[in-house]
Amino acid sequence: MRLYPNIARGIKGAKKTRGFKKDPLTVAQVKELLRGIDRSTPQGKRDYALLNLFIRTGLRTIEAVRAEVGDIRQEGGEAVLWIQGKGRDTKDEFVLLTPETLRPINEYLQTRRR
Q1: CA 98 to chain centre
Q2: Are 112 and 46 in contact, with CB atoms under 8 Å apart?
Protein backbone atom coordinates (compact mmCIF):
# COMPACT_ATOMS: atom_id res chain seq x y z
CA MET A 1 0.00 0.00 0.00
CA ARG A 2 3.11 2.23 0.33
CA LEU A 3 1.80 4.22 3.25
CA TYR A 4 5.31 4.69 4.65
CA PRO A 5 8.53 5.50 2.80
CA ASN A 6 11.06 2.69 2.33
CA ILE A 7 13.85 3.74 4.68
CA ALA A 8 16.05 0.80 3.55
CA ARG A 9 16.15 1.87 -0.09
CA GLY A 10 19.70 2.25 -1.32
CA ILE A 11 21.24 0.15 1.48
CA LYS A 12 23.11 -2.87 0.24
CA GLY A 13 23.34 -6.04 2.29
CA ALA A 14 26.47 -7.98 3.12
CA LYS A 15 27.96 -9.79 0.15
CA LYS A 16 27.66 -13.55 0.21
CA THR A 17 30.28 -15.63 -1.48
CA ARG A 18 28.84 -17.95 -4.07
CA GLY A 19 29.46 -21.66 -3.77
CA PHE A 20 31.67 -23.57 -1.42
CA LYS A 21 35.40 -23.27 -1.93
CA LYS A 22 37.37 -26.46 -1.59
CA ASP A 23 41.12 -26.49 -1.49
CA PRO A 24 42.65 -29.55 -3.16
CA LEU A 25 45.07 -31.75 -1.29
CA THR A 26 48.72 -31.38 -2.14
CA VAL A 27 50.66 -34.38 -3.44
CA ALA A 28 52.43 -34.62 -0.07
CA GLN A 29 49.08 -34.62 1.77
CA VAL A 30 47.73 -37.36 -0.51
CA LYS A 31 50.80 -39.53 0.06
CA GLU A 32 50.58 -38.99 3.82
CA LEU A 33 46.87 -39.85 3.80
CA LEU A 34 47.40 -43.09 1.88
CA ARG A 35 50.44 -44.06 4.00
CA GLY A 36 48.35 -43.66 7.14
CA ILE A 37 46.01 -46.50 6.21
CA ASP A 38 46.75 -49.92 7.74
CA ARG A 39 46.50 -52.20 4.69
CA SER A 40 46.97 -55.40 6.69
CA THR A 41 43.24 -55.63 7.50
CA PRO A 42 40.30 -56.08 5.10
CA GLN A 43 38.89 -52.73 6.26
CA GLY A 44 42.23 -51.03 5.63
CA LYS A 45 42.43 -52.55 2.15
CA ARG A 46 38.90 -51.33 1.44
CA ASP A 47 39.63 -47.82 2.72
CA TYR A 48 42.86 -47.64 0.72
CA ALA A 49 41.13 -48.87 -2.46
CA LEU A 50 38.31 -46.32 -2.09
CA LEU A 51 40.54 -43.34 -1.31
CA ASN A 52 42.89 -44.30 -4.10
CA LEU A 53 39.90 -44.54 -6.48
CA PHE A 54 38.62 -41.10 -5.42
CA ILE A 55 42.03 -39.48 -5.72
CA ARG A 56 42.94 -40.95 -9.11
CA THR A 57 39.56 -40.64 -10.84
CA GLY A 58 37.80 -37.70 -9.17
CA LEU A 59 34.63 -39.70 -8.57
CA ARG A 60 31.91 -38.33 -6.33
CA THR A 61 30.97 -40.32 -3.26
CA ILE A 62 27.55 -41.23 -4.68
CA GLU A 63 29.18 -42.54 -7.87
CA ALA A 64 31.37 -44.91 -5.85
CA VAL A 65 28.43 -45.98 -3.68
CA ARG A 66 26.40 -46.90 -6.77
CA ALA A 67 29.29 -48.82 -8.37
CA GLU A 68 29.23 -52.61 -8.36
CA VAL A 69 31.97 -55.14 -9.07
CA GLY A 70 30.30 -55.98 -12.40
CA ASP A 71 30.69 -52.37 -13.51
CA ILE A 72 34.44 -52.91 -13.89
CA ARG A 73 34.95 -54.03 -17.48
CA GLN A 74 37.58 -54.25 -20.18
CA GLU A 75 36.97 -51.78 -23.02
CA GLY A 76 39.49 -51.64 -25.84
CA GLY A 77 42.14 -53.32 -23.71
CA GLU A 78 41.70 -50.86 -20.83
CA ALA A 79 39.95 -51.39 -17.50
CA VAL A 80 37.05 -48.99 -17.01
CA LEU A 81 34.45 -48.45 -14.31
CA TRP A 82 30.97 -47.61 -15.57
CA ILE A 83 29.32 -45.09 -13.28
CA GLN A 84 25.90 -43.62 -12.68
CA GLY A 85 26.54 -39.90 -12.45
CA LYS A 86 24.82 -37.43 -10.17
CA GLY A 87 21.20 -36.94 -11.22
CA ARG A 88 21.30 -39.82 -13.71
CA ASP A 89 19.16 -42.96 -13.96
CA THR A 90 21.60 -45.18 -15.86
CA LYS A 91 25.29 -45.99 -15.85
CA ASP A 92 26.17 -44.07 -18.96
CA GLU A 93 29.62 -42.68 -18.12
CA PHE A 94 32.91 -44.34 -17.31
CA VAL A 95 36.30 -43.60 -15.79
CA LEU A 96 39.55 -45.21 -16.81
CA LEU A 97 41.10 -47.45 -14.16
CA THR A 98 44.88 -47.30 -14.43
CA PRO A 99 46.88 -50.24 -13.03
CA GLU A 100 47.67 -48.11 -9.95
CA THR A 101 43.94 -47.65 -9.38
CA LEU A 102 42.84 -51.20 -10.20
CA ARG A 103 45.49 -53.05 -8.16
CA PRO A 104 44.22 -51.97 -4.69
CA ILE A 105 40.64 -52.72 -5.74
CA ASN A 106 41.59 -56.25 -6.78
CA GLU A 107 43.59 -56.76 -3.56
CA TYR A 108 40.53 -55.80 -1.52
CA LEU A 109 38.16 -57.95 -3.59
CA GLN A 110 40.38 -61.00 -3.01
CA THR A 111 40.20 -60.60 0.78
CA ARG A 112 36.52 -59.77 1.25
CA ARG A 113 33.71 -62.22 1.58
CA ARG A 114 31.11 -62.47 -1.17
Answers
A1: 16
A2: yes
User: Which has the closest alpha carbon to 48: 104, 91, 112?
Assistant: 104
pTM for the predicted model, two decimal places = 0.76
Q: What is the DSSP string of the chain?
A: ---S--TTTT---PPPPPS---PPPPHHHHHHHHHTS-TTSHHHHHHHHHHHHHHHH---HHHHHH--GGGEEEETTEEEEEE--TT-SS--EEEE--HHHHHHHHHHHHHS--
pLDDT at 1: 77
Low-confidence ranges of the chain (pLDDT < 50): none
